[in-house]
Fold this sequence. Notes:
By secondary structure, chain A is of the alpha+beta class.
Amino acid sequence: MAKDTKRVEQITDMDVDFAQWYTDVCRKAELIDYSGAKGLFVLRPYGYAIWEKMQGELDRRFKETGHVNVSMPMLIPESLLQKEKDHVEGFAPECAWVTYGGSEKLDERLCIRPTSETLFCDHWANIVHSWRDLPLLYNQWCSVLRWEKTTRPFLRHREFLWQEGHTLHATAEEAIAETEQQLEIYADVCENLLAMPVIRGRKTDKEKFAGAERTYTIECMMHDKKALQSGTSHYFGDGFARAFGISFADKDNTQRVPHETSWGLSTRTIGGLIMTHGDNNGLVLPPRVAPLQVVVLPIAQHKPGVTEKALELVERLKKAGLSVKADVSDNSPGWKFAEYEMKGVPLRIEIGPRDIESGCCVFARRDTGEKATIALDSLEACAIETLDAIHDNLFAKAKKHLEDNTFDAQTLDEAAQIINEKGGFVRTMWCGDLSCEEKFKEVAGVSSRCIPFKQEHLGDTCACCGKPADKMVVWGVAY
Amino acid sequence: MAKDTKRVEQITDMDVDFAQWYTDVCRKAELIDYSGAKGLFVLRPYGYAIWEKMQGELDRRFKETGHVNVSMPMLIPESLLQKEKDHVEGFAPECAWVTYGGSEKLDERLCIRPTSETLFCDHWANIVHSWRDLPLLYNQWCSVLRWEKTTRPFLRHREFLWQEGHTLHATAEEAIAETEQQLEIYADVCENLLAMPVIRGRKTDKEKFAGAERTYTIECMMHDKKALQSGTSHYFGDGFARAFGISFADKDNTQRVPHETSWGLSTRTIGGLIMTHGDNNGLVLPPRVAPLQVVVLPIAQHKPGVTEKALELVERLKKAGLSVKADVSDNSPGWKFAEYEMKGVPLRIEIGPRDIESGCCVFARRDTGEKATIALDSLEACAIETLDAIHDNLFAKAKKHLEDNTFDAQTLDEAAQIINEKGGFVRTMWCGDLSCEEKFKEVAGVSSRCIPFKQEHLGDTCACCGKPADKMVVWGVAY
Lengths: 479, 479
């Protein structure tokens, strides 16, 4: 009977071809499928369930900090997109354009939102009048579309799911504080939910968002030592508000222009999750974001009482608040082991006739492969403890990887040599000039990832031009 | 100070101009704003919060019945849309077409999904192989786009939010049972969350969904006695599966074609909610769907201890699981009363110095306007009881309205006279012929709303042609 079921096929070795390994995992773990339109992907139930977990955690934190959800239109009239100059320059080249409604050619073409700053501002111009209307702390869960040339599952979709927060404040100070607060929420979710250590910092002017005064970012290091920008927040000053004619009567009755922010985190971060923790057996999910935290597998399940016992363990663990199921299908234990390893389920519990007899079961950890015999009496406590230990181990491993592969350099040549020989991140001092930043790209093939909030004084001069420098920058090859 | 805040303006009398009353409520209760693209609306925080409540209740019920969420692309290649004939005929005239990606003209144009049957089938053709892969019980939360000519807030958007369930089954029986089960979930949510009584039934062939074999519907009666279709489920047979080449190896190893369903409920139902319960003071929200169930208003709040007491009540009610806030702004009590009436908050609690002295507060019900003095000792129990009573009253009132305005007729002429003089729904026997159905439209201006599951034998002959008839149909003017 088991023979006609799908097989768990081999995936490419991650150390042989990391890109192919990644694509294999996305498909074999049933996270994603390709669609008929290039660059648009199907998020399958297992992939979408990871996003739902992330949504739940982010949405809770957004609401706790006073934000409310809204829904803006998906289409932007071309004239509206053009109202803010830097913004339209950044996004127009990658817009998808609607030119026909039914059989009728439109007078003005509409783009599918690549991001929604223009829509929020257009709405706010209607509803903001007084200081009493501020701050506006809005968020929306939606998908946006950017006409990318090359696409990859999660990392670069033409359409991707995200949340985009947009807020409006009476003062610059308040808006900047919001921008920093939301970045910290992203960092918290990355580290404490996804077990991905982050570098918090500010983007250089070259790398900031189109139309922003400042962009903050969290940067993560993947298994192949490349960087993934995993969440950003932007302070816009009053540029957008002026362009859209938003103003308010302040307490002293003078008319003022408010300050704006936006911040976003997308399904791209799921790509980061895969590339941070995965291994040659497939996906490895940190327990707090795993749609299925525990799978219970009966061994010799045809023997009396085994299936019942497995289902009993499931009920006990459910009551303890865990996400758990038993697989009592007629597939072989070997097939099941491989299947749930591929899917990255953090904890596998095996229970057979002999275990039942001796009042225990076997815990097998996905992260380390370690097995332990556990007394059934302490099932719940041990499961919770093990899941926490798995999270901590995954985080510590990723943090060590980041630290072991981050190097300091005094000169551009030194930086280029490190990148060339070892890969990873390089930290140097930088004078702040665009020309030096461009030179890093040219010579070392790296872009500035960020100017970390936690600065260290590595020297007094720019690694590129030798002029005085007071900023430490992290450089790397980015996805 | 209070003078510079927005005022609660008058809304049109609902008995003078119901359509204008409706639009006024949508805007003044801050549910919606218009956008720069015709027919695309902004769902403001208060409007979106209603949708979030509905989402939560529906999503929970979907998951309890074994469904999982996914995310499909928003764009459909034209060739894919054309694979099922009836379906493309129904939807192509109202598709929005993307013809450019950036500055590049596309080889094949893409439509923004008007609904996603074609996308689900295209994906399923990739992943369905064996009977073990079935059933597939999928749902997605998203927006879809239909290029409507006339548009109205909630009732007819070019873009609207909805959920669309899509399922695939080994047998017709299973698929039909699913179609019925999901309709029952919609009916349950309408009645028990939204306090909207429904008529459950089956659509005639004329009114069914493009490509479906059967469409089931729940129909509600609005305050103006017109009908609103509030949720539908469709059984497709194996038509789509054949068109998309989906088949599976059954247990006996023969290759079979699976059966498909889909079902959807949209933000349109929020329009129904407004038109079912609203009154001349604005929105009236049933307590279980109200984003804010209770508002506490301090009276003479400058007096010592009043604000503190109001906040204390809020904390107590929060602990009891209610959604509640106090408005301690410097707006006048009169302004606040009008504001929360406009927003349809089910229960207003007033508390002033004299109430505090005598250990009580005042409950004011939004639905009836009744006031009652409540001992603070029994605050939580009374609040919960009152909210339940409000739900029951709103449901009973709407049910009476539906029953009082549903009439039986023996002939088409009689039906036309009733519709003309009284409005509402008319029930007649019907032979099943399309020509008779069209005649109802022509003569009485009504469409068939449904063939109710609960049939009554009103006679032996069709009200139109006089031929033998065994189906009772509900007719009405629909939104």
